[in-house]
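User: Could you check the structure of this?
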Amino acid sequence: MSAAHPQPLSPRGGERVAAGRLRRGALLAISAVWLLSTALWLQPGVIKPDGAGYLVYLPSAWLDGDLLFYNEWQRLGMVARDGTTMFRGTSASDHLGIHWAAGAAVAWLPPFIAADAARAIAPPLQRFPRNGVSLPYNVAIVAMSAAAGLATLLIGFVIARRFTAEGAAAGACIAVWLGTPLLWYSVRHATLSHAVSGAACALFVLLALRLRNAMTTEAVFSVGLALGFAAAVRVQNVALAPVVLIVLEPAARREVLRRAHWLIAGGLLGVLPEVIASQVLYGSPIAFAGFGARVTLGVFRRFWFSETLFSWFHGAFPWTPLVALAVCGLLLVLRSDRRLAIAGLYAFLIQWLLNATLERAFWSGVSFGNRRFDSCTIFFIIGLAALLARFPRSGAAAAALCCAWTMALFFAAGRLDLNFDQTPSELIAAMGPPKLAPLAFVPPAAKAHVAALAVFTLLLIFAIAALLRRARPHVRAAIAATYLGAVSLFFAVCGVRDGSRKALYRDLIEKNRAQLGQTLSDIGLLRAEERYLRRQGKEEAADVTAAEAARLEEAVRGR
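Assistant: Sure, the predicted structure tokens are below.
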């Protein structure tokens, strides 16, 4: 026996060792690129209005114990001298009726609390005000978004290496980091929800694929939990729900449907923090889905199918051409994992459809590329990995060129007004040399504090992630469910306390019942649309938009 078996056993053992080394090397390469780019370009700051809208849940709930947001809006400079609350007005429940979902704040809450504690015990940090938006709090949020970007890459690697070599999977992760909006929203405009959204959707896809091998109650519940939380981050993510059925064989699909009550229970718990926030802010648990806020611009008023992908006004392909390569790569995945490829193509098509019909401002306002495809990031990694595996040299060269173009825009964006469209020549004229100094976008006087706070926050996040990774799946699911339930209860308690505090903001509440701030915001979007249409030579359509803006302006003057 000793002569018969050792020879085949030894090579297999050697192959396992070599595979382990390749895997570790690939993970190290991904992590090194992420760490280097984060160290170079991490940029604290609150992007207004979207970043402020996602952020205000934290200082309001944790520091004030309410969800009124008026004083946070004042602190962030978004209440005009005449008392008009910019971008949003008073809701039916006398709250600031913001439409930005609470899910990102739920993800940011642990490092936010850690920052509050660090500020309390570290004398050098006590010169920063305890207001929830000063440097310690802001860096904690930005660092968490950066970690979410890394989580998206690592989950993408785990999935992609199932049908490609480690090198192709790692190369796809690095290219997607540099060649899509993921880098921008992980380290530059990181107070927006897109990095957290990308990670939540990636986790949902990973857990959906786990059902192929682990059709247990915990596994089904966890998929629902991940989907619900993704919807709490950005409601558009609920459109990915069919993915859980698309990726499964018919027999497994029937089993999921048989356990649908666990899937629904997980989904409801995952989205519960946003449901509670929606009830408090608008008096309706489903207002976050668009039923509670007055929509001035409306939906299905313009159809932007080509513009969403091909316009130079933040279109997905001109700003991030790597996305086009990744979508083509999903067609190659049809050969190795047909159901996963169909799921990826479905995800891309449904987000394209939603952005082209439900979003009047297809350019996404102040945006880097088309940021609203964040939920598809995991599928971009999968598709690009297949492309690099099938065409290693030409695919790598094309991906490198795409990344070079997008990174050139990454550095040019600071010299552009992202509210308006630019021609290719205008984009090229704004390009300059890359900023390669540590924390290149941070003022020199703040670099030491930002570096120390970022390291502290990231070490805390990685420590928590390491502990969770060592836990069994049902323990992780229980921890996640408990945390989401606790935050939901916390939001509910804050909402109950709001009634006794509304008197503090009575003047602002009464001043903004007419939703003047929202109307002014809509006028700005319409004027940007008019400018775009005129530059495209579409004068008739531009005249229609101009007349719509004029009617709103007349209504404002009549108030």
